[in-house]
Amino acid sequence: MGTEGMDEASNMKVVLKHYITGSAQETDMLLTAGTMKLKAPKDSNAVVLKNLFLSCDPDMIFKMTGHKREHCDPYTLGSPLTGYGVGKVLDSANPDFAVDDLVWGITGWEEYSLISDTKYLMKIQRTDVPLSYYTGILGMPGMTAYVGFYEHCTPKKGDYVFVSGACGAVGQLLGQFAKLHGCHVVGCAGNPDTVDLLKKKFGFDDAFNYRQEPDYDATLKKYCSEGIDVYFDIVGGKMLDAVLLNLRPHGRVVMCGMISQYHLEHPDGILNLPSMVTKEAQIQGYLSVNYYHLYPKFLEIILPLIKESKVAYVEDVADGLETAPKVLVGIINGLNIGKKVVAVDHH
Question: Taking every annotated instance into account, which residue ranges of this chain make up the domain Alcohol dehydrogenase-like C-terminal (predicted)?
Fold first, then answer.
């Protein structure tokens, strides 16, 4: 339905009913109807967006627990969830954005959003690639992989690289960056299909299904028999602990997430830290949002790689806002194959 000339529209949204303990369930969220004024208040610097695509990202689960941490507040109960998305500007009181501009950044899990704080919105200049890519390879996950690999992993040709959560939007790209750099790359994922994808589609040298491995230390000794120079950590927990035993001298652990820990009341302890001393290794965590000044440089690198098919990218797109709760719960359970995206309207 067009919105031209309309001052108000019905607005379906996904809201959080209560804070969660343990694993998130679909029933923790509610799809509800409201209305939205389609005009940005004068002098507000705000924009009104029609949301097109929403990104499902693991750290959203952490915001559902009600816990506060340094860089993000928990969700407000009864309000729409927020996360990365792609939208079209319907109205603007902000000189940096015009009507019909396409943008990506933080938006609401709803059909329309009033964005008052636009510092995390980026204008989309290139539309010769699918718009949904700006939730993944050309958005926050792509930047996360780029910054992690090129700014923090200090990779050398021939390095042995291990990636956990390797079939998600960040892991699939980081593994390919490492291959392009001349590294030997092993990944782990949560089901046989994604393990196949890592080897056949993304070019990993080897991969395993972590759910079928009772002893991570033994598994890493098998699949990473030369040891690990670079561990790109997306999951944390017991896998991280096992990696510490398998690092090579001067190994690097670069952390962008801890999917396995977000829903735990008491996170897993890390027992093997003495290895960091004897191996003179490093651990580095980072937030990609602090590197967005590098976004133009990232696009210069990634767009030609996409055009020349030198990187593969797999999306898993669900149709309709009503699918969003199920999809978000699914990524924590490893049910996605590639980057999970919700198309707000049915195609």
Answer: 169-301
Bridge-based pairing state of the strands 247-255 and 282-285: parallel
Task: Report the CATH superfamily, name and number, of domain 8-136+314-343.
Answer: Medium-chain alcohol dehydrogenases, catalytic domain (3.90.180.10)
User: At 114, is the pLDDT very low, low, confident or very high (cuts 50, 70, 90)?
Assistant: very high
Q: Which two tokens stand for residue 216?
A: 């991570």
C-alpha–C-alpha distance, residues 128 and 263, integer Å = 38
The torsion region of residue 118 among left (phi > 0), alpha (psi -120 to 50) and beta comes to alpha
CA 312 centroid distance within chain:
17
**What are the tens digits of pLDDT across the range 21-78?**
878 899 999 999 999 999 999 889 999 999 999 999 888 888 898 777 766 788 999 8
CA proximity to 314, closest of 189, 160, 180: 189
pTM, entire model? 0.89
DSSP string covering 133-170, please? GGGTTTSHHHHHHHIIIIIIS---TT-EEEESSTTSHH
> What CATH topology corresponds to 140-289?
Rossmann fold (3.40.50)
* Domain coordinates in residue numbering, the chain: 8-136+314-343, 140-289
Determine the Cα–Cα distance for residues 210 and 188; give it in Å rounded to an integer: 6
| Other Cβ atoms within 10 Å of 199 Cβ, number | 14
Which amino acid would we find at residue 122? M
**Could you tell me if 47 and 18 are in contact, meaning their C-beta atoms sit under 8 angstroms apart?**
no
User: Please, which residues have CB within 8 angstroms of residue 156's CB and are 6 or more apart in sequence?
Assistant: 229
